[in-house]
């Protein structure tokens, strides 16, 4: 799809019923995100999520969605060492995932290489990586200064070299997202990274306007416009495909 210039649509999913609906709509990929710690469990960040939580929800989603590319998040500290990463990735692949996602840059180089050598496809995640919220001092846009931007481009190239087959960029300026997307041959999907990436991902609760608290700037309530969940998901996909979502108002400078 990247080579053809076709935009990729993806969304988080945590249960069989929504996953089935997204699958029927033709969603290109689904993520069992550790965002479940916030939107399902009500925590203020993703740190309390365990590998057992992700494995359980991956099983649920896989039962509902048989067609989609299913990515499962490796939660906080579940890939702190290579051995841990292998054992925990196995749990998610055995639960039905096709790929696991890890947050971070070049410190993960040999872990990613080891996973790929052991037949585990890997998705990277750079920018506002929520597992590092305590290092960032809050959920803040990343990569705004020149030094940070250059470092992020270098990390992205290292991740591709290590073997990641997909990269998520979260909450970074459009210009930086474009530089990274252009620099890589693998597909790059964004959340709060403008419409310059190869595709988009949203947390399903944000896309349907059911998250409690403030709606993130980068999201849009597709249910409000349609009044029907299937139609909302189709609208999300068609707006991504047409390059209409995200607009300037959802993006960062
Ligand atoms: O956990 C999650 O839902 C994510 C997305 C925001 C990309 O990592």
Order of helices and strands: EHEHHEHEHEHHEHEEHHH
Q: Do you know the CATH topology?
A: TIM Barrel
Named CATH architecture: Alpha-Beta Barrel
Instruction: Give the helix level as a range of percent.
Output: 40-55%
Structural class: alpha/beta
Outline type: globular
Regions with little confidence, pLDDT below 50 for 5+ residues: none
List cofactors, ions and other ligands: 3-methyl-2-oxobutanoic acid
CATH homology superfamily name: Phosphoenolpyruvate-binding domains
- The structural domain count equals 1
What's the β-strand tally?
Answer: 8
The main β sheet shows up as:
8 strands, parallel, barrel
Give the C-alpha Rg: 17 Å
Cα-to-Cα separation, first versus last residue: 27 Å
Average the pLDDT over all residues and give the rounded result: 97
Number of helices: 11
Q: Into which percentage range does the β-strand content fall? A: 5-15%
CATH top level is Alpha Beta
